[in-house]
Amino acid sequence: MVPRIIGIIQARMGSTRLPGKVMMNVAGKSLIAHQIDRLRRSHHLTGLCVATSDLAQDDALATHVEALGVPVFRGSETDVLDRFYRAALAQQADIAVRFTGDCPLIDPTLVDDLITLYRTAAPPLSYAAIDVARYPRGLDAEIVGMADLRTAWQEATEPFEREHVMPFLWRRPDRFRLNWLSDPTLDAPWRWCVDTEQDLILVRHLLETLLPVKPAFGWRDADAAMHANPQWALINRDVVQKTLPPT
Q1: Residue burial 109-130, b: 16+ Cβ < 10 Å; e: rest
Q2: What Pfam families does this protein map onto (predicted)?
């Protein structure tokens, strides 16, 4: 049986550093619409879902996503693991791929490579992710099967394990088999996620430059644009990525 592989985008309006960022308009579309358009080019995803909170402040986001033809699941703002798990259940997923709504430059080919890595591993993996220590941050994706996701949902108790969905798995390599899609030859230190106004300025440059000439551009096209415009790297070089507690 062909598994249902569902991409679940976590998104909400209540970002602390850049509120409402997922609905901000760049190059004629919201950031979340750009991300959805790019993920729809994946050959391996069966479908997409946006998982947002059940707070009134996310009503407009839910309406916008539904108008784009993507199902929405609404749940706890703070227990994101519960929201993500229930969204996967609602979509009858066999495998769930996690994205965050602040990554409008997500690369569908890289996502397909991650899915292939997960599905062809022997022995089977519990979890795999794109290695953003090598690839630009903003290409983030994580993949998990429903049995292991259910285990995390049932057993995780620490607040940050509920808030960030996957740490219960990757903090326990003795229990779960883990892998990362990586390339030791890469040196692409860019930051393409949108957490701050500086991030937004950079992503706007990339989208407005690349979309008119190559609407289905990939991450290597964006990397080439960064090298062609070295001043762009200065825009958000001082933005500090929020970190999770150590393993």
Answers
A1: ebbeebbebbbeeeeebbbbbb
A2: CTP_transf_3 (PF02348)
CA 36-37-40 angle, to 5 degrees, is: 85
Asked if the model's pLDDT at residue 203 lies above 90, the reply is: yes
- Token output for 29: 């579309």
Q: Are 9 and 40 in contact (CB under 8 A)?
A: no
128 pairs with which residues across the strands?
A: 143, 179
Mean pLDDT to the nearest integer, 36-57: 98
| pLDDT-based confidence at residue 246 (cuts at 50, 70, 90) | very low
Q: State residue 187's pLDDT score.
A: 83
Beta-strand pair 95-100/142-145? antiparallel
Among residues 72, 69, 60, 70, the alpha carbon closest in space to that of 20 is found at: 60
Has residue 143 got a pLDDT over 90?
yes
Give the residue among 31, 28, 51 at the shortest CA–CA distance from 202.
Answer: 31
How large a percentage of the chain has pLDDT more than 90? 90
Three-class DSSP category at 130:
strand
Taking only the tens place, the pLDDT of each residue in 71-87 is 999 999 999 999 999 99
- Rounded to whole angstroms, the Cα distance separating 208 from 212 reads 7
Task: DSSP for 137-203, please give it.
Answer: BT---EEEEHHHHHHHHHH--SHHHHHSSSHHHHT-TTTS-EEEE--TT-----B-S-SSHHHHHHH
Which of 104, 50, 54 lies closest to 78, judged by CA?
54
